[in-house]
Each structure stands twice: as C-alpha cells, then as structure tokens.
Specification:
This protein is of the alpha/beta class. It has a single domain, classed as TIM Barrel. It contains 15 helices and 9 strands. It has an 8-stranded parallel beta barrel with strand order 1-2-3-4-5-6-7-8, surrounded by 6 helices. Helix 7 links the parallel strand 2 and strand 3. The protein starts with 15 loop residues before the first helix and ends in a 7-residue tail after the last strand.
Length: 407
C-alpha cells in the first residue's frame, strides 16, 4: 500500500520547482558513489532490498502470527508475520508478549536523552524535510560559545545523554566542527550520540576519539526508487552510501548504531521490515555492537503543515514497535517527540525503553528565549524532563539518566 501523501509532495507550491527540475535530477544515478565516498565490499544492501521487495505481507495468516509469538528466538520470517495485517487483530496478545520481553531485558527502566541541533544548513534536496536546501527558512549555526551555553542549559536539567544533530552540510558543519562539539559535550554528558550526514570510517573514528559513543542514521525509505524520487540532489541522494553508514561507524570504533525508516514516506510495513532486517544483519556481523531502533512517523514541516503519515495510525505504530521488540530483544527502542505524550508513555510501558525530553528542534532553543534558526519539523510532545520523569514514575517505570560508568 502506497502512502497517498507522496504525490502531494510535488503539488504544494513550496515544491513547485521540485517537480520542474525532477527530470534533470533523476539523470543522476542515485546508486552511484560520489568522489571521496568510502565503498564497503558487502552484499547486505542487495539482500535487504531484495527481501523488502519480496515481502508479500498479505500472505501471512493468524496462524503464522501465533507461531511467531510461540517462538523464543524469532526469525526474519517470524518478524515478517508480526508486521503483517494479519497481526493487527492479535495486537493485544502481541503487546503482552512484547511487554514481557521488555521487562525481561530492560526491567522497568526508561532511558532519557535530548537532541541538540547545532546547525540547520543543508546541501540536500529532500522534499519532505524542513531543512532542505531549497526551503526558505532562517539558517543558523552555533559557535563554540553558543554550543557550550546550550549544553550547560541542558545539563542543568539533569540530563546526562545528548544527541548532537546538524543539517547535512559538510561545508557548514565539517567533521572538525562536529568533533569540537563532541569534545564540549563530553564535559557535560556521560553519553554523546550523533545524528549527522554519513561520513567515512576514518572520520567516524575521529569523531569517536572526540567523544562520540554512537551514531544514528535514518535510511528514510528502503525502496531505492522511491528514495530517488524524494532525494533530488546532494550527497544524501546516494542510496548505498547512506545504507552502509552504520557499518562504517562501527568500523570507526563507535560503540553503538541506530536504524530507522521514516514511516509514511512509502509502504510502512516494507520499510519497517527492511529497517529491522538491516539492524539484525548488522548485529550478526558485528556482535559487539549496541543496536538501537527508532520508529519516527512523518511530521508536518515548515512551509507544509499538511504532511502527515495517513496510513500509519497509532495501532500500526504499536505493531511496529512490538514487532521490533519481539524480533530484536536486546535492541534499544526510541520513541521521539514526534508522537504525543499519551502515545509515548504507553509505548514506554509496553515495548520501548528510550525517550527524549525537553526537546527543541530549532537552533539555540535550549538556552535562549528566541531560537537562532528554524526547526526541522513540528514536535508533538513538548514536555520538560521533569514532566516526563513524573509521568513515567506514575506508570510504575523507573527513569534512568545514564547506565554507563566510566573508569
């Protein structure tokens, strides 16, 4: 099933020139590496994309779902059944099983982090993103003093894990700039994550030496043809380079890597299946790696407040999160502030174990009364750390700032 919002991307006035220029952009091979991009000798991309294409989720029955639930260790075939439409009538049983698995591996703990946007300059042309290079927004980049001011403000709330983000512009946010941010963050936080443009393994190694612990990369959609339609220009257009980012990060020494598809860009069942399979295969190849999954749904962006994932409702989101938990027991599962407070709290109680708090997706919004640069997308849960902490305690969950002890 294809998301009915896809055609709308090319009809809104803000993207009128995207439709006009699409014919020219599509001549650039989105599967061809650009100069300077590291190439890994791996067939994983072909395997994931092939299994995504072959995933015929309508063929699964309630009996297939029940068999998957009965297994202690679930196969990709079990995972496929749990994501199928046949699983929805059994969602209560699936949720109960997922909650038992969550408690088995994570107890009642919930881990906190907050994102810090360092810059919103971007060189890509992604039609669904507020940061895209053709979007008329207020651009900004924090200098070192502003970075430290933001970090001090976040740390003062009690937060001990930070996720550093930039727009995808190597020119405006080069690895040295990001590395300096990591060094500053290490002064204030026990865990430092990165969500930046993909880089080569030696650059990930440099960022790891600067203090970064893990890297998250959203593949957005694992359908390479749809990916080409939505990413019209820039380095992000190169589908395989983005796909292998997690492996390069692990080769660069990162402790953990995160995976996600942006649910609602394309067929969400196939994309959720591909993201889970991708994480599963990387875990098998790098057994030491800490694996994480996010389940973001498409959100309204600046200049287009109508973008919504019309085919990914709350029940489907719960199904995806539970399927991830049952397939990848040890994986950390994050639910972002894209979701409302009620949905986030319920997902923490059932299957997820990591949540963001005190979120601001603009530039400079933590320490100042006014943001320096515009936000990437609209959030739905603007609660502070204290508010979410209290809400989760009332549900019988144990908020955790950090589980890492450095000696």
């Amino acid at each position: 099933m294809e998301n009915s919002t896809n055609d709308k991307f090319f009809n809104d006035s803000i993207y009128s020139d995207a439709a006009a220029q699409f014919s020219a952009h599509r001549l650039t091979n989105h599967m061809a590496y650009q100069e300077g991009m590291e190439i890994l000798q791996s067939a994983m991309l072909e395997q994931v994309c092939r299994q995504r294409r072959e995933y015929a989720y309508q063929k699964y029955t309630a009996a297939d779902v029940q068999r998957a639930l009965a297994h202690d260790q679930r196969t990709p075939e079990d995972f496929a059944a749990l994501l199928s439409p046949a699983a929805l009538p059994l969602l209560e049983a699936i949720a109960q099983k997922a909650q038992a698995e969550r408690r088995r591996y994570f107890g009642n703990s919930v881990h906190f982090f907050t994102p810090l946007y360092l810059a919103n300059y971007c060189e890509n042309y992604c039609v669904y993103c507020g940061f895209n290079s053709h979007n008329a927004i207020c651009r900004a980049r924090l200098d070192e003093l502003q970075m430290e001011k933001e970090m001090a403000a976040v740390a003062a709330t009690g937060m001990q894990e930070i996720l550093l983000l930039t727009g995808e512009s190597r020119k405006m946010s080069d690895p040295q700039y990001i590395g300096r941010a990591c060094q500053l963050a290490r002064k204030y936080f026990k865990v430092v994550g990165l969500e930046i443009y993909p880089v080569n393994s030696d650059e990930y190694a440099y960022l790891h030496r600067c203090g970064a612990d893990y890297v998250t990369v959203f593949q957005e959609t694992y359908d390479s043809d749809k990916y080409a339609q939505l990413h019209l220009a820039g380095h992000k257009r190169v589908f395989p380079y983005r796909f292998y980012a997690q492996e390069r990060a692990l080769r660069g020494g990162m402790r953990g890597v995160g995976f996600a598809a942006l649910l609602g860009l394309d067929d969400f069942r196939r994309d959720a299946f591909a993201a889970g399979l991708h994480a599963y295969l990387v875990q098998r190849q790098y057994p030491h790696a800490e694996i994480a999954l996010s389940c973001p749904r498409l959100r309204p962006i600046i200049n287009n407040e109508q973008i919504k994932p019309l085919d990914v409702h709350e029940r489907q989101l719960l199904q995806v999160v539970c399927a991830y938990r049952l397939f990848l027991h040890f994986a950390s599962i994050t639910v972002s502030s894209r979701e409302c407070a009620r949905v986030r709290d319920n997902l923490m109680l059932i299957a997820a174990n990591k949540i963001s708090a005190g979120v601001n997706t603009g530039i400079g919004g933590h320490s100042g009364a006014q943001e320096l640069g515009d936000e990437q997308f609209a959030i739905d849960d603007g609660r502070s750390l204290e508010e979410i902490y209290t809400a989760l305690e009332k549900l019988g969950l144990q908020p955790v700032m950090s589980e890492y002890v450095y000696v």
